Amino acid sequence: MVLCMSVLGLALAAMAFGSATRPERTTPTAHVQPGAAQAAQTRFFVDPTPGRVPIEALLLEIENHVRLEQAAAESFVEFPTKAMLHSKTTSTFVN
């Protein structure tokens, strides 16, 4: 009984995987509007006109993060405790 249920579950999982990875089938349409092709190519979560961040701002954020991490490491070297080892820095980046 367990073997039969395992085979059935494997078959269902294989069918679900196959349908999820199969390429999408498209049907030809009679008339295609010029803007429809461009709208179909945009992604769901992607903004078509992303805002650009200057490289200087990114470098400044990274330098600030490195300074904060170095200060945290130096304070741990001076006074090593278990609480200091697991404490978070004030950096905006996730540790």
Description of the molecule:
The protein has helices spanning 2-21, 34-41, 55-78, 82-86. The chain is mainly α and 95 residues long. The protein has a domain at 55-87.
Secondary structure blueprint with pairings:
Layout: H1 2-21, H2 34-41, H3 55-78, H4 82-86
Shape: flat
DSSP helical segment count: 4
Helix content: 55-70%
Low-pLDDT residue intervals, each spanning 5 or more residues: none
What is the string of helix and strand elements?
HHHH
Distance between the termini: 49 Å
Estimated share of beta-strand residues: under 5%
Evaluate the radius of gyration: 27 Å
SS-derived structural category = mainly alpha
Largest sheet: none
Rounded mean pLDDT score? 78
What's the number of extended β-strand segments?
Answer: 0
Give the structure's gist in a few sentences:
The protein is mainly α and 95 residues long.
What keyword list fits this structure?
95 residues, mainly alpha, 60% helix, 0% strand, flat
